[in-house]
Design goal:
Number of domains: 1
Shape: globular
Radius of gyration: 17 Å
Number of strands: 0
Distance between the termini: 13 Å
Strand content: under 5%
Helix content: over 70%
Largest sheet: none
Order of helices and strands: HHHHHHHHH
């Protein structure tokens, strides 16, 4: 029981850190991560906050996951795994709005400051991902969608992830142009975050977490 509590606590902490990292990347104003691109565009062009838009997007992705495991493809374990995403997606949306309030006063003074803020956000995001993975509690909706889509269409997870991220960015760019007449949230920072975060996750997991053997605690 104690181990389960520790795992859920670690996952929630990782979720909060991820939310904080995302808000830092938003404040950097160099483009948001692919997974946040549509949510960010919606928050700019509708009454929804970024947290609310993120939750709405996650709910949509959750329904899409159910579609992917329909027709006898999925198991009871899959259904439970997807349902568990709902409360954590709601908590994640709240964390994002809380952190948007915390970082809203930050105004980078120049391009180098924006880059520094973006890199800090990517680093914290990578730490958050490693904590979430090591806690082994639940897979979040975006990764869950990629997992089930890869299984349904017999594709490699990595290749499906690239397709998924590219689709999100293109959709966000089109949606932004339709709603506002220009493109918001998709810039060089989007590419930097997409490329850098994965590398940082691998580095942190192999060079920091493994030597410290934190997997014994989370």
């Amino acid at each position: 029981m104690k181990e389960i509590i520790v795992r859920y606590a670690a996952f929630t902490a990782g979720l909060y850190l991820l939310a904080f990292a995302i808000t830092l990347i938003v404040v950097a104003s160099l483009g948001v991560t692919p997974i946040s691109s549509i949510n960010y565009v919606l928050s700019l062009n509708t009454p929804m906050t970024l947290g609310t838009a993120t939750f709405a997007f996650n709910v949509l992705v959750i329904f899409l996951q159910f579609a992917l495991i329909s027709g006898g493809v999925g198991t009871r374990k899959d259904v439970f795994e997807i349902l568990l995403q709902i409360p954590f997606s709601f908590i994640f949306g709240i964390f994002i709005d809380i952190n948007m309030g915390i970082v809203s006063h930050i105004e980078p003074s120049g391009y180098l400051s924006c880059i520094a803020l973006l890199l800090l956000g990517c680093l914290l995001q990578a730490f958050a991902v490693v904590i979430e993975v090591r806690s082994n509690v639940v897979i979040m909706s975006a990764e869950g969608f990629v997992k089930y889509a890869a299984r349904r269409f017999h594709k490699e997870f990595g290749k499906m992830k690239v397709i998924f991220d590219a689709t999100l960015v293109i959709t966000a760019a089109i949606l932004s142009f339709v709603l506002s007449g220009h493109i918001d949230g998709v810039r060089e920072g989007t590419l930097i975050a997409a490329v850098l975060t994965g590398s940082l996750v691998s580095l942190i997991s192999a060079r920091i977490f493994t030597p410290l053997q934190l997997s014994r605690y989370i």
